[in-house]
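User: I'm putting together notes for a lab meeting next week and I want to include a structural view of one of the chains we've been expressing. I don't have a solved structure, so I'd like a prediction I can at least talk through. The sequence is below, exactly as it appears in our construct file.
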Amino acid sequence: MKSINKMIYAVSVAAFAMTSCSDFLEKEPLSQGTEAIVFKTADHFAQAANQFYNHLPGWSYDTMDRNTDIGGLSQNGGGSAPESSSVWNNNYSNIRQYNILLEKAEAFDGDKSTIAGAVGTACFFRAFAYFNLLKEFGGVPVIDHKLDVNDEALYGARNSRYEVFSFLLEDLRKAVELLPRESTISNTDKGHISREAAQAFLGRVLLYEATWEKYVPSIGYDLNGDGNQSGAGAAKPAGYPSIEAMLTESKQASKAVIDESANGTYQLWNECDTLSYYYLFNIDDKGGNIPNFMGAGKTTNKEFIISKKYDYDLKRGGLNLSHTAITWQAVGISAQFGESFLCRNGLPIRISYTGQMDDAQNNPEFEGWDTFCGEYYHRDYRFVSATFVPDRTTWSSRPEDNRQCTVLGQPYPTPVFPKNNDVFDANDPVYTSATGIFRPTLRNNTTFYGYGSRKYLIEGANRDMNTESADWPILRLAEVFLNYAEATCELGNGKISDADLDISINQLRDRARVAHLTNALIADVWDAGWWDWNENKTVCHKMTMLDEIRRERACELFGEGFRMDDLKRWGIAHINLRGQKLGRHVLNTAYTTEKANDRTYFGEPCYYPEKYPLLYGIYEGSGVNDPDYGRSIAVLAANLNFSQRDYLAPIPLQQIRLNPALKQNPGW
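Assistant: Thanks for the context. Below is the predicted structure for the 668-residue chain, given as structure tokens.
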């Protein structure tokens, strides 16, 4: 690690001088800013801490759950260790800046209470950085001070994941103690990390590590190593918390934020009726842009507890987001995930009351696949509002789509349908309309793996390519509800009271228009559409509270970068990310009974395998009575090579060459 730390020393000092000092050097009668002069007043500390917000993650396709079980898999695993890693380099570079502020705070001879907020902010961000490193690599070197080129830490070994977690946990606890309450932060400073934000993040990290310790040992692979030949070892510091203690503290931290939300400090965003979940993520209301059909702007959003702030005038997203979303390339929804969204009565699309597939039946609210739109009716609005439903089109900010939202009050463009589905009429204006609605077809060698998602699609006008400026959610109230419910259920050995459900995830189900989850609702009910990721087939599965909380987590947080972390901490990543996966139902659906009515394929079968075969064909299984009979084959098992070693990323090879004391993670 010595060279990378030397690099961090050189690069970070330069960056610190350029960013942290530039705002207030003019206040000092000196020609050049140094660490010795920029931390003389409380204002200096505050301005330095403000620079840390630049380190928060923002819009990136890498954080959209691509190539996961719920997002649609293509290939994975089997790679080799890279030379370098931005996760390693960036986080250690940032940690240096936090350490500088914290060291200067120790030496500050003024009133320490005046710099408490800045110190709390530095503690929070240092914990944030170490949590990033922990999730990526496991144990890493803990650096708690500013390094110079002769520091022994440059040549040190990795600390164990338990030592890293203990260190960041203390930082977070200190941040909670020092940071101001959200209710006391002025409007001009909104977006700064508050006590409740630190508590919410504390709830996240404790739940992560508690469930990692509970489930990951069962994968049959030693990820810690011995610390001598491989890995970071398994040394635990004195007083390291038990799994139960971590879950208890996670629950308490999350409950504190929930209690604060009851005062109106935070609240779920419900400004757009049944489409509130969809519009929550594309609020972008400056420069004449209409963010949603209700015109609700960013000031109405009290759900984002921590977010990366963007502004059309001052800081744009810089991501070609609208194009990516409208062309189905942003957030994916696999067939298994799409079918896992519940009906509005709170039960799965297929149910059994005996546990036998033979007597399984469609949920009374599920209308099946006989029509193109039936499966979308009476379903969770997080699914309906965030997918491209066949009987409607959607607004799009792209000028070439010719359907930018320019007026309030209309959640969807007015659809136009062909005058005649049996006889082609070249003069029918629907064929030149931007809002024409046509029957879906399976063409272009598709795998028909899942559903398109319009989550994050900017709809209004005045948003050219790469100028979309919605805020990126890092931690929102919805996650706090989920963390609370999961920690409570884990503490209860799979049980949770209806009262605890009502103060947490049932609030999310209210927004999604799904019946409350209760103990009575799922008693003696089997999900007959449950995808068994271990067997890679649909089975009849007894409904449990923990499964339903995990389902709720997937439905609420999809596309926000949580899924891979969840799969790993639950010890199921090597199961869910392996094996042949199936796509959507094709045979015995509208695709085999309807004909195309668009200009290009008019009159052809919507599914026409003789002319347009699916890339990997159709799955037949054990025959027509197989619950997966007639699905497309979405991805071949040979393309999926994720294994237990992939729970942790390899230490960059460059770092090991520079510091042989850093031992590679097992399996790499």
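A couple of points you could mention at the meeting. Confidence is low (pLDDT under 50) at residues 1-33. The radius of gyration is 26 Å.

User: Perfect, that's what I needed.
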